[in-house]
Amino acid sequence: MSLANASSTDTQFDLFTKVARFDHEQVLICQDNHSGLKAIIAIHNTVLGPGLGGTRMWKYATEAEAINDALRLSRGMTYKAAISGLNLGGAKAVIIGDPAKDKSEHLMRKFGRYVENLGGKYVTAEDVGTTTKDMEYVAMETEHVVGLPEIMGGGGDPSPVTAYGVYMGIKASAKKAFGNDSLTGKKIAVQGAGKVGLHLIELLHKDGAIITATDIFESGLKTAAEKYKATIVKPEAIFEQDVDIFAPCALGAILNTENIAKLKCQIVAGAANNQLEDDNIHGDMVRAKGIYYAPDFLINAGGLINVYSEYNGYVREIAFAQTENIYNTVLNIYSKSEEDNINTQLAAIKLAEKRINDTMLLQSKI
Ligand code: NAD
Question: Which of 90, 189, 221, 282 is a good FRET partner for 357, with 20 to 30 A between their CA atoms?
Fold first, then answer.
């Protein structure tokens, strides 16, 4: 594999150093000439249970970019499961290719064979660039797949549950910042009117919040404006809105130095994964501005809770009830951040790591 010209910032891509730094248990390279499959399955940590994480299919510019994504996202899954109290580990798969052109039944089934060969250590699901239909193909080769359509005993689209968890995170943050968790009359800016963003806007509108929304495509915005009375702004204007709460529900790494400087809100709480460009630098920067930041991997865990529910026979009401717990965990994280004088992202990671370390200790005793 040619990793020499990995990326402009990563000229010497050293796979073993990276894997050691993140402390992954196993990284599997999957390659098949016939189907054209090129995939990486990264299993970060299975102390709490099988590593569960979706399969992302993306046109990565370099192989190093794909590996980095798999390593970073799988570690995020470990923290998400741990802090949500689920008996799951963290893993993620990425398939290198254009989901619109390079996908086939054969490719997905071949990928399913790789998942099967891991014997349950890795459980897959849909993610960006893959669909429930793809997971049906994967399921022809392995039982270690979740997030199947409801008709196949799965939980179906996780977005409403994810949105509900984010809504709980927003309410808990409001309680902390404003003394009560009512969102009536609160001004909220939502970045991304996609699957999660629109469900969230619906919940916020029901509570009487005043919504500003943006997206790079029209369709979600039309619904946001017509059904939920949202004011629409240009994508680049979303950061500087004079609002109480900012809910990023589109992309990662948007909490960077430039955008944080523009924020006028008191709370940042949204669904997007990896919102902080750098957990340390930007987590501290947000905190120094007096903004309450609800860690993304904690408040967007509803989707994971939803697929986890499939293990015991899926009941949607149970998934929603478990997701409600995000409210208490967010309040706990704000307290921990104050007690330990650290930013909320680090406080949440610390709590997740504690659960994993405690479990390891349990496992080492008779
Ligand atoms: P989605 O693709 O349906 O929605 C994302 C929306 O963001 C799209 O409408 C897209 O056009 C918009 N967007 C992209 N770039 C933008 C920009 N620069 N400015 C404004 N809008 C932009 O995805 P989703 O399922 O709603 O997920 C949203 C975020 O939440 C993602 O980061 C995803 O990883 C994360 N997440 C989703 C789930 C879930 O259950 N779907 C679970 C956990 C985390």
Answer: 282
The ligand 1 atom at the shortest distance from the C-alpha of residue 252 is 32
Is residue 193 in contact with ligand 1, taking CB distance under 6 Å?
A: yes
Residue 102: what pLDDT? 97
Domains and CATH numbers, the chain: 8-77+88-145 (3.40.50.10860), 159-353 (3.40.50.720)
For 120, how many CA atoms within 13 A lie in the half-sphere containing its CB? 3
Amino acid at 186: K
Other CB atoms within 10 Å distance of the CB of residue 141:
18
Residue 92 a catalytic site member? yes
Pocket probe mutation, ligand 1, options 164, 200, 216, max atoms within 8 Å of Cβ: 216
- In a mutational test of the pocket of ligand 1, which residue from 92, 195, 326 has the highest number of ligand atoms less than 8 Å from its CB? 195
* β-sheet bridge partners, residue 228: none
Contact by Cβ (8 Å): 188, 203 = no
Q: Is 272 in the pocket of ligand 1 (CB under 6 A)?
A: yes
Nearest CA to ligand 1 atom 9: 194
Buried b (16+ CB within 10 A) or exposed e, 154-189: bbbbbbbbbbbbbbbbbbbbbbbbbeebebeebbbb
* Torsional sign, CA 162, 81, 76, 330: positive
Q: What are the E-state strand segments in 217-290?
A: 231-232, 245-248, 267-268
pLDDT at 2: 37
Whole-prediction pTM = 0.91
Cβ neighbours of residue 165 closer than 8 Å, sequence gap 6 or more: 299, 300, 301, 302, 303, 305, 323, 326
Predicted pLDDT at 311: 80
Low-confidence ranges of the chain (pLDDT < 70): 1-13, 366
Q: Are 189 and 247 in contact (CB under 8 A)?
A: yes
Which 3 state secondary structure label does DSSP give 342? Answer: coil
- The pLDDT value given to residue 151: 83
Catalytic residue among 80, 92, 110, 121: 92
Cβ of residue 306 lying under 6 Å from some atom of ligand 1 = no
Element (H, E) at 37: strand 37-45
Reading the block at residue 231, the tokens are 């004011």
